[in-house]
Write a structure and sequence with these properties.
Elements: E1 4-10, H1 20-31, H2 36-56, E2 60-66, E3 70-77, H3 85-88, H4 98-102, H5 110-117, E4 120-125, E5 131-138
Helix pairs in contact: 1-2, 2-5
The structure holds adenosine-5'-triphosphate and magnesium ion.
Residues 48, 52-53, 55-57, 77, 79-82, 88, 93-96, 105-112, 131 line the site of adenosine-5'-triphosphate.
């Protein structure tokens, strides 16, 4: 498989279009015949990362790249950043506002879910410097990383 790279813009606080980037990734992976299990893991990670940019971050992007051995999703934003990454990774930790909770978000399960579903996750952030979440999914010899 030739290397494929894509980049999608994510607009902060745009709940109307939120989730569109991860749907595009999902559609592309389907067309490349990855297994439903693999696509599901990538889709969960893409969606949770995208929602975090919309809810907590600043404007940003979802970039993804596939090569024969791995798929990489890089979600970054220029928002306020995460003060304590270790804490943010814990199940149930959330700084979501009431308006987010009313929409069904704010369980503090996004980052833990991303950690569970990606083969590797690296969160880089600094207060005032934005946030970057890089997730790697290994692809096996059949071209299917499930
Ligand atoms: N891109 C980001 N920019 C700034 N803070 C973030 C970002 N992503 C996550 N955080 C911080 O990490 C916390 C935990 O994120 P996580 O996705 O696990 O939970 P949540 O978004 O609050 O709730 P849920 O994902 O379950 O709806 C957030 O509440 C927020 O404080
Ligand atoms: Mg979240």
């Amino acid at each position: 498989m030739a290397a494929i790279k894509k980049s999608y813009y994510i607009k902060s606080r745009d709940f109307i279009r939120a989730g569109e980037a991860s749907i595009k990734v999902q559609t592309l992976l389907k067309s490349l015949n990855f297994s439903p299990q693999f696509i599901r893991r990538v889709a969960i990670c893409g969606y949770e990362g995208e929602m975090n940019v919309v809810m907590h971050g600043g404007d940003g992007s979802l970039k993804f790249a596939i090569n024969p051995s791995e798929l990489v999703i890089d979600i970054s934003d220029d928002g306020p950043g995460i003060i304590d990454i270790e804490k943010a990774m814990q199940e149930g930790f959330s700084t979501a506002l009431d308006e987010h909770r009313e929409m069904g978000f704010g369980a503090g399960m996004g980052l833990p879910n991303m950690k569970r579903n990606a083969d590797k996750i690296i969160v880089t952030s600094e207060k005032g410097e934005g946030t970057r979440v890089r997730m790697v999914f290994f692809i096996d010899k059949e071209g299917d990383g499930s």
